[in-house]
Design brief:
Layout (H helix, E strand, L loop, with lengths): L4 H15 L12 H11 L4 H14 L3 H5 L3 H8 L6 H16 L8 H5 L6 H12 L8 H10 L11 H9 L6 H17 L18 H4 L19 H13 L7 H5 L5 H13 L4 E2 L5 E2 L5
Antiparallel strand pairs: 1-2
Helix pairs in contact: 1-11, 2-3, 2-8, 9-11, 13-15
Keywords: 4Fe-4S, DNA damage, DNA repair, Glycosidase, Hydrolase, Iron, Iron-sulfur, Metal-binding
Catalytic activity: Hydrolyzes free adenine bases from 7,8-dihydro-8-oxoguanine:adenine mismatched double-stranded DNA, leaving an apurinic site
Organism: Prauserella isguenensis
């Protein structure tokens, strides 16, 4: 039997209602702003690291207008070590547009969300589904893996294809909007906790009897090799070390303070230049460096 929307609804929604993690951005009192912040923070960052920072942000900036009124330096400090700090500046810019053009309320439809600065296809659909209960396919790495296995019998998802991925997930969503939104969350949860990349817990999977991959004998993934992400020694690590220095002081610092964080001068200077280009660091008239707007 092939996995269909009816089968998925009967099993996955029951499973999700019984086992879903109690995450604060899933609670009924969490509005679109809280969901938007969570989705930006959760990109390539584990839930355990996000949750305490998410609470701090919502307490400090409970509405988009509150974040928009903050300085970029304040936003970058509050972002801390979540990584990929450009996400913080994009959220800051989006908050300003939401405050000025949308009555300080995060929009509820995909097209309007996509028009916000820094909001991509995944984030727009995630906010529409999880904050407003809209029926729209929400596709992340976990969902793509579940669909690849359960529907197509492949060990993992191949290269991303927006049209195909959206159609695959759309076909599994029930017609009812609220149930479809919950299904999107359930598919994501299944991929994150059960149908994992390296050690899938098939015995705990609610749709194991209808999984094409299991029925095929769990063939190994034979698609294009996936790039292995590393951190140690990368420009990303060096950029983080440079930002750590600036987050730790309220005053611009001389370049000598930055030079000590990494002994490879060429890589260090390249990373500093990239931070300046990205608007994450600014240089003062006397040649020192600071977070944006803090001099």
């Amino acid at each position: 039997m092939t996995l269909t929307a009816d089968i998925a609804s009967e099993t996955l929604l029951d499973w999700f209602s019984e086992t879903a993690r109690d995450l604060p951005w899933r609670r009924p009192d969490c509005d679109g702003w809280g969901v938007l912040i969570s989705e930006i923070m959760l990109q390539q960052t584990p839930v355990a690291r996000v949750e305490p920072i998410w609470h701090e942000w919502l307490e400090r900036w409970p509405k988009p207008s509150a974040l928009a009124a903050a300085t970029q330096a304040e936003v970058l400090r509050a972002w801390g070590k979540l990584g990929y700090p450009r996400r913080a500046l994009r959220l800051h810019t989006a908050a300003d547009v939401i405050a000025r053009e949308h009555g300080d309320v995060v929009p509820d439809d995909v097209d309007t969300l996509l028009a916000l600065p820094g909001i991509g296809a995944y984030t727009a659909r995630a906010v529409a589904a999880f904050a407003y209960g809209k029926r729209t396919p929400v596709v992340d790495t976990n969902v793509r893996r579940v669909v690849a296995r359960a529907v197509h019998g492949a060990g993992d998802a191949g290269p991303a294809s927006n049209t195909k991925d959206m159609a695959d997930v759309e076909a599994l969503l029930p017609a009812d909007e609220r149930r479809a939104a919950t299904m999107s969350a359930a598919l994501m949860e299944l991929g994150a906790l059960v149908c994992t990349a390296r050690a899938p817990q098939c015995a705990d999977c609610p749709i194991v009897d209808d999984c094409a991959w299991v029925r095929a004998g769990k063939p190994a993934y034979d698609g294009p090799a996936k790039p292995v992400q590393k951190f140690a020694g990368t420009d990303r690590q060096v950029r983080g070390l440079l930002l750590d220095v600036l987050r730790g002081t309220d005053e611009p610092v001389p370049k000598t303070r930055l030079d000590v964080v990494w002994d490879r001068a060429g890589q260090r200077d390249r990373c500093l230049d990239s931070l300046l280009t990205d608007g994450l660091v600014e240089q003062t008239a006397d040649g020192r460096f600071a977070l944006p707007g803090e001099h």
